[in-house]
Q: What sequence folds into this?
């Protein structure tokens, strides 16, 4: 079954085309990354999925339930953690979670609420008013609110923006655990390192369109490469290597290599050329490079 | 089980947690009106024969407080949720437009009725009030609070900023309540203003409510109830339409 299915979703806000026909499928159990610069349409797509925005055209479904026609089942199937920190200052943490639970028609949900409070490290704050919580704590409550009805699909919209390292790690451990127990995770983030570590598949958006979609390792293989970064203390790069290499502003050379055996060859030719190596590292393919390349590619349309 | 009872509970708990502002303050304001007007005008005015001016004032002032507080409850809750952004926690769950409408409406009515009870509880010691027709009293209390609770939902949905809501309150709700015959009988007005007053749905709520206490009113109570109910129904229809379309809530 498809956890999320978007078919030609379009959305316009006045003159701004937020979504220009997005088609996307997320399989059940995937850890899916939705990446793109600010204004690419990621949040609009998530809003349309949760019913916070209404698509102008196209269709969206969660676990096979259309978000408009079958909105009750669709909303029960998805838990969304919004990007902005929002809270209701009238209530305590526990009240907030009990009320959220009730909205989904769940009355005897205390055991699960206790577990969420415990697992998200909120136990000491359960009776505290939302107003008195730090930003990170409020973020944890928002995660708990999104999970209170045990949705099979969990959507996190930039959950680690402005979050300290400790909470970020705790949050990822928690979300990984949810994914391991069968939940589908859809994540947006600007931290590409996180996306690379966590997501099995990635879609990149720009200006309301999906401009790249594929398994993370596939995107890395297609758009990034392993490089040997060498800085020389003395001597010159042999011509055979220089032909393939690029020079960084700091003076280091970047030599693309396919596998580690090439490192051996490169070092040998450096030694034979009488060059002395000051520093050396093997840089693995990076999603950041993939991202930059894809965004740049999308920038130069048919103008030329 | 649906989410409606929870949203209703949350909305009632919201005002109850700050009941000093939301219940005690309007009761006190109403008492001040009563003391000042009663002092200034007692003995000089007799609207219905055999009914003192203070007695005449109490139901009207109580209804005015009920109307204003019903309006304030739904409108302020919605605008606060919209501005702080926590409205998403109501929009994301599987709540239908009808459930959202019913919960905000009923919570507003509870607030209006609690304030009304507070006003009567606080004035009982001053002036005894007969209640010959308690069913009319209840009917108009429900319809009046319902009408304004609904209007509050519309105002809360429509307003994007607090000053827009304040404008709605100061330029629509306040004039309509003050010109609804709280302090006088519209029979004492020139014909033109009488005709204008008859277009004001708040007038029917107050006039009919008063009938429940004195058995006398400007309009027959059944007519007033019909007009007030019609206004309530029309506003409810509009509110449901706005909620179904997601007007200014679901973008």
A:
């Amino acid at each position: 079954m498809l956890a999320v299915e978007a078919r030609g979703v379009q959305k316009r806000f006045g003159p701004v085309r937020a979504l220009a026909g997005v088609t996307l499928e997320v399989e059940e159990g995937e850890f899916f990354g939705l990446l793109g610069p600010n204004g690419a349409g990621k949040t609009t797509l998530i809003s349309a999925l949760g019913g916070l925005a209404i698509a102008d055209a196209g269709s969206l479904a969660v676990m096979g339930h259309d978000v408009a026609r079958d909105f009750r089942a669709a909303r029960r199937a998805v838990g969304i953690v919004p990007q902005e920190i929002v809270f209701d200052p009238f209530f305590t943490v526990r009240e907030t979670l009990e009320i959220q639970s009730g909205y989904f028609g769940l009355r005897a949900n205390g055991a699960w609420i206790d577990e969420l409070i415990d697992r998200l490290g909120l136990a000491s704050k359960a009776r505290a008013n939302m107003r008195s919580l730090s930003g990170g704590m409020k973020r944890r409550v928002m995660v708990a609110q999104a999970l209170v009805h045990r949705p099979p699909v969990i959507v996190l919209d930039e959950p680690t923006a402005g979050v300290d390292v400790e909470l970020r790690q705790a949050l990822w451990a928690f979300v990984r655990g949810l994914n391991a127990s069968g939940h589908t995770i859809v994540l947006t983030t600007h931290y590409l390192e996180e996306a690379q570590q966590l997501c099995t598949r990635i879609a990149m958006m720009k200006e309301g369109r999906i401009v790249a979609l594929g398994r993370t390792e596939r995107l890395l293989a297609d758009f990034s490469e392993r490089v040997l970064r060498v800085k020389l203390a003395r001597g010159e790069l042999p011509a055979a290597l220089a032909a393939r290499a690029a020079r960084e502003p700091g003076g280091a050379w970047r030599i693309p290599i396919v596998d580690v055996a090439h490192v051996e060859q490169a070092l040998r030719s450096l030694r034979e050329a009488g060059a002395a190596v000051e520093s050396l590292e093997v840089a693995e393919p990076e999603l950041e490079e993939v991202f930059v390349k894809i965004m740049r590619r999308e920038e130069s349309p048919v103008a030329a | 089980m649906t989410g409606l009872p929870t949203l209703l509970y949350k909305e009632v708990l919201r005002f109850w947690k700050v009941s000093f502002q939301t219940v005690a303050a309007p009761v006190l304001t109403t008492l001040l009106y009563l003391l000042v007007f009663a002092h200034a005008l007692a003995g000089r005015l007799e609207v219905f024969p055999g009914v003192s001016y203070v007695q005449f004032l109490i139901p009207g002032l109580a209804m005015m407080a009920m109307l204003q507080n019903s309006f304030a409850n739904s409108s302020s809750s919605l605008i606060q949720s919209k501005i702080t952004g926590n409205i998403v926690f109501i929009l994301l769950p599987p709540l239908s437009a009808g459930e959202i409408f019913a919960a905000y409406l009923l919570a507003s009515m509870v607030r209006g009725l609690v304030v009304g009870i507070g006003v009567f509880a606080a004035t009982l010691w001053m002036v005894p009030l007969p209640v010959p027709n308690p069913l009319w009293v209840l009917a108009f209390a429900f319809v009046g609070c319902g009408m304004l609770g609904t209007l509050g939902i519309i105002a809360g949905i429509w307003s994007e900023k607090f000053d827009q809501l304040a404008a709605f309150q100061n330029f629509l709700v306040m004039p309509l309540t003050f010109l609804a015959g709280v302090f006088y009988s519209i029979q004492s007005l020139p014909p033109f203003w009488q005709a204008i007053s008859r277009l004001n749905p708040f007038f029917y709520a107050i006039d009919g409510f008063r009938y429940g206490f004195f058995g006398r009113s400007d309009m027959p109570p059944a007519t007033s109830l019909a007009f007030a109910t019609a206004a309530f129904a029309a506003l409810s229809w509009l509110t449901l339409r706005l909620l179904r379309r997601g007007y200014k809530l679901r973008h």
Notes: Chain B touches chain A at residues 1-3, 5-7, 9-10, 13-14, 17-18, 81, 84-86, 88-96, 246, 250-251 (CB under 8 Å).
